[in-house]
Specification:
The chain is of the alpha/beta class and 325 residues long. It contains eleven helices and eleven strands. A six-stranded mixed beta sheet has the order 2-1-3-10-4-11. Strands 7-6-8-5-9 form a five-stranded mixed beta sheet. Helix 2 packs across helix 9 (264-278), helix 4 (96-105) crosses helix 11 (299-320) and helix 6 (165-177) crosses helix 11. The longest helix has 25 residues, at 2-26. The radius of gyration is 23 Å and the shape is globular.
């Protein structure tokens, strides 16, 4: 009888633990969720994060609190996500830089993109663009290539820093066109764009959202974009694919990530709230103004995109001989 009593007690205790764990997950979230943005306020990642965080408040039932932690090309903030407790209360913004370029270019990182992070869902993809100072006698990419080849090593291009999207695009452009243009790294895309407008550098590679206002104001001239087809906002600007520059024909992406080990029901809850947010007309309209194309999907689909882009960037970084300490 005593043995039977203990067996019944043990079974009841186990069921209680399972039930308690399920209830805890069912109750998620019971407090606000921190969303780490691994870049400074005001950039494309921050703008998209704030739009999505505000819209997810309703379907998630709790607010998402933005925590900007910039530095080291997004590695500091992404490392903070990887080191956070895997309980769904700290998540992060993941980008082409932090999830594909940095792991390919940096010798060491404070996170492992494969084993340290959990994909939650893709938010959107945005085109990249090559622009020049309007005073430069180049109205097309062919013009720019001709100028660069006529006087090698004199034209300069700016980037947001070593190992950034703009740096990688610049080096890919050099390889694809056989030109010799000089890389000038900055501490962020803002200062680089300022110098491109001022004429201190002649060429800029960037995500379209941050460059578009300067293009529309005539302060920079767009030569090509990486969208699948021409954009309504820039109908006269060809795509890289049209020009045969297929190595530059890739989009920057933004998505939500969580620490590895975050329970699947929590990841699915976050993914469902993200999907609901991206279906809202006001969110789609705001993202469209950023030239961001909403692309809701499963965590698995986002994970597959990350794996694909990581391999692509590893090949590009190896070809361009980029290495960031």
């Amino acid at each position: 009888m005593r043995m039977r009593y203990w067996l019944v007690f043990a079974l009841a205790s186990a069921l209680a633990l399972v039930s308690g764990g399920a209830s805890a997950q069912d109750a998620y979230p019971s407090r606000p969720v921190t969303l780490i943005v691994p870049f400074a306020a005001g950039g494309s990642t921050d703008v998209i994060a704030r739009v999505v965080a505000d819209a997810m408040r309703g379907p998630l039932g709790r607010s998402l609190v933005i925590d900007n932690r910039g530095g080291a090309g997004g590695s500091i903030g992404t490392g903070a996500v990887a080191k956070a407790a895997p309980d769904g209360y700290t998540i992060g913004m993941g980008t082409a830089s932090t999830l594909a370029i940095n792991p390919a270019a940096y010798k060491s990182l404070p996170y492992d993109v494969v084993t340290g992070l959990e994909p939650v869902g893709l938010i959107a993809q945005v085109p990249n663009v090559i622009t020049v100072n309007p005073k430069l006698a180049a109205r097309t990419v062919a013009d720019l290539v001709a100028l660069a080849k006529a006087d090698p090593g004199t034209l300069t291009y700016g980037s947001a820093g070593n190992g950034s999207v703009s740096h990688l695009m610049g080096e890919q452009f050099k390889l694809a066109t056989g030109t010799d243009i000089i890389h000038v790294p900055y501490r962020g895309v803002g200062p680089a764009l300022n110098d491109a407008v001022g004429g201190q550098i002649q060429i800029m590679f960037d995500n379209l959202p941050t460059s578009l206002p300067l293009i529309q104001d005539g302060k920079l001239r767009a030569l090509a974009v990486s969208s699948p087809r021409r954009l309504a906002v820039l109908p006269d600007v060809p795509t890289f694919a049209e020009l045969g520059l297929t190595d530059l024909d890739w989009m920057a992406f933004f998505g939500l990530i969580a620490p590895a080990g975050t329970p699947k029901p929590v990841v699915e809850r976050l993914n469902a709230a993200l999907g609901a947010a991206l279906a809202m007309p006001q969110v789609q309209g705001t993202l469209a103004k950023q030239q961001a194309q909403p692309q809701p999907g499963t965590p698995e689909a986002f994970g597959a995109l990350i794996a694909q882009e990581l391999q692509r960037m590893k090949r590009a970084v190896t070809a361009a001989k980029i290495e960031v300490n």
